[in-house]
Amino acid sequence: MITLDDTDRMILRALARDATLSAGALGRQLGLSQPATWRRIKRLTEAGALAGRRLVLDQAALGFGVTVFLGVTLATKGRVSLEDFERAVTAIPEVQTVQHVLGLYDYRLRVVARDLPDFERVLRRRIMTLPGVGQVDANVLLSEDRRPGPL
Amino acid sequence: MLTDDTDRRILRHLQADPAQPMAALARRAGVTEATASRRLERLRQRGILKGQEAVIDWRKLGWEVEVSLRITLDKTNPHAFDEFTAAARLVPEVLEIQSFLGRVDMRLRIVARDMAHYQGIYRSRILTLPHIADIEALMHIAEIKRGEALPL
């Protein structure tokens, strides 16, 4: 685990908003030199705290009108290995995230589709045919708010 | 259509590696560097490419516990959604707030340093949120696929 000071926290907050900021531009915002800022970013990256970048896209404008969260319970625990299910589910392009969870479900999936008929196609042809899949519970996303987190 | 095949191809390759230089992106997408720059600029101007954000690995920062809380609200109050959301935004450990059409109404993704810390947040900050009718918790064990890439 990496320990952070206030400057590290400000750097993480700024990059979480805009990852394209250069070390020079970020340093000017924080009153740090470009090399000092660069060294801190390098340390945060090497520690794995900065784990890459994500594009922020207008999904609807790109034709993806529907996002659905699925809770999946495996039917045949033990007989079908978790690895088989995980390998098959991660290969589905419409499945954006897969989390192994403990609770009411075994896996939580985030699925994107063009519209509800397209989602139904993905659900029937790709999700329900996964090895070991049992019950599937669906919740259609209406709105989403991402927060900066405890920095 | 708002975008054509070339736009989508450029975005697909950029999505796979957002930090790559323009020259590498243009080569992979099979266009000239000038075309790639112009197309990205147009996608930005039209608000389709909104930007890039750094992904923070909270576990590496010592936030070991991650939980999805699925919440059903008391819908007899017409302000339940708005008041719940406004109050949840004030809890620093909340990373995502989603609202749904389905079996549950809301989901909060929260992080905590350890189980004792989680218990404290749950009791003092979550159970005190307004209009909660029911809560289910899912403890995250592992991220199998991440990044939220679109199938462009």
Describe the protein in words.
The complex is a heterodimer of chains A (151) and B (152). Chain A is an alpha+beta fold and 151 residues long. Chain A folds into two domains: 8-46; 66-140, Alpha-Beta Plaits. Helices cover 36% and strands 30% of the residues of chain A. Chain A is built from five helices and five strands; from the N terminus they run αααββαββαβ. Chain A has helices at residues 6-17, 23-30, 34-46, 82-90, 116-127; strands at residues 50-57, 66-74, 95-102, 107-113, 133-146. Chain A has a four-stranded antiparallel beta sheet. In chain A, β3 (95-102) and β4 (107-113) form a beta hairpin. The mean pLDDT of chain A is 94. In chain B, a hairpin with a 3-residue loop joins β3 and β4 (106-112). Chain B folds into two domains: 5-45, Arc Repressor Mutant, subunit A; 58-139, Alpha-Beta Plaits. Chain B is elongated. Helix content of chain B is 36%, strand content 31%. With 152 residues, chain B is an alpha+beta fold. A four-stranded antiparallel beta sheet of chain B has the order 3-4-2-5. Chains A and B meet through α1, β1, α4, β3 and β4 of A and α1, β1, β3 and β5 of B.
Topology:
The complex is a heterodimer of chains A (151) and B (152).
Chain A: H1 6-17, H2 23-30, H3 34-46, E1 50-57, E2 66-74, H4 82-90, E3 95-102, E4 107-113, H5 116-127, E5 133-146
Antiparallel strand pairs in A: 2-4, 2-5, 3-4
Helix pairs in contact in A: 2-3
Chain B: H1 5-16, H2 22-29, H3 33-45, E1 49-56, E2 65-73, H4 80-88, E3 94-102, E4 106-112, H5 115-126, E5 132-145
Antiparallel strand pairs in B: 2-4, 2-5, 3-4
Helix pairs in contact in B: 1-2, 1-3, 2-3
